[in-house]
Automatic annotation (TrEMBL):
Residues of the site described as Transition state stabilizer: N149
Keywords, comma-separated and alphabetical: Hydrolase, Magnesium, Manganese, Metal-binding
Species the sequence originates in: Bradyrhizobium lablabi
GO MF: double-stranded DNA 3'-5' DNA exonuclease activity; metal ion binding
Site keyed Important for catalytic activity: positions: D218
UniProt binding sites for Mg(2+): N7, E34, D147, N149, D247, H248
Protein name, per record: Exodeoxyribonuclease III
């Protein structure tokens, strides 16, 4: 079973790119983030034609998350992260696909920091850890996939000081991610590629893609019930270099 996470950065604008990647990569399940689309404008028909069922939680202009499943319909289990009834941003969706609970997470960016946006990021992390702990207690196969907007370690960002004040690499952001993983989750990409950067994001500005000035922001965390099934993991870097591409590339895993 091949599972991918892909921040598509506007699903309708990048739809030709996304459909071409689906035809080539043939993932069995995909978590999408940053749809920048309402539910009504989400291209369900195009995905059905490509052989994918879909569930989504859209939002006008910003945010938005979805889960696609090849030759089946995802069984929707949750459309929001619990813990804050006043949070109406579309950043979390959860569904069952082929016996696995799969999420699509679009964690807040947190900039500028310090400030309310960074506080929101850390609180969102706290709520995610609380929900993730409950999932672990159920002893079920879970994949927490998505754009976490955190480069967890120095290896996960190109050599630079230009991001030193950015929320993506702050000690508190990294500590929040580390505390989540230490609940018992397996960072799939880093587990199989312990010494390679494995970047998933290259900003459009300052020629960062041609310079390979990237960050690893997109992660797939595996529960103990599914981690032993991990056989492969990677990043489809070439997708980032295509015309009209998202500033992210798909990260993926293969499970026995």
């Amino acid at each position: 079973m091949k599972i991918a996470t892909f921040n598509i950065n506007n699903v309708n604008r990048r739809l030709p790119n996304l459909l071409a990647w689906l035809r080539t990569a043939k993932p069995d399940a995909v978590s999408l983030q940053e749809l920048k689309s309402t539910d009504a404008d989400f291209p369900v028909a195009a995905f059905e034609k490509a052989g994918y069922g879909a569930v989504c939680q859209g939002q006008k202009t910003w945010n938005g998350v979805a889960i696609l499943a090849r030759n089946t319909e995802p069984v929707l289990t949750r459309t929001a992260l619990p813990g804050d009834r006043d949070d109406h941003e579309a950043r979390y969706i959860e569904a069952a696909v082929n016996g696995i609970i799969l999420t699509s997470i679009y964690l807040p960016n947190g900039n500028p920091q310090p400030g309310p946006k960074f506080d929101y990021k850390l609180d969102w992390f706290r709520r995610l850890r609380s929900h993730a702990a409950k999932l672990l207690k159920q002893d079920i196969p879970v994949v927490l996939a998505g754009d976490y907007n955190v480069a967890p370690a120095a290896m996960d960002i190109y050599p630079t000081k230009s991001w030193d004040k950015d929320a993506l690499i702050q000690p508190k952001s990294r500590a929040a991610f580390r505390t989540l993983v230490e609940q018992g989750w397996t960072d799939a990409i880093r587990t199989l590629h312990p010494s390679k950067p494995m970047f998933t994001f290259w900003d459009y500005k300052r020629n960062r893609w041609p310079r390979d000035a990237g960050l690893r922001l997109d992660h797939l965390l595996l529960s103990p019930e599914v981690a032993p099934r991990l056989t492969k993991a990677g990043v489809d870097r070439q997708v980032r270099g295509e015309e009209g591409a998202s500033d992210h590339a798909p990260a993926w895993i293969v499970l026995k």
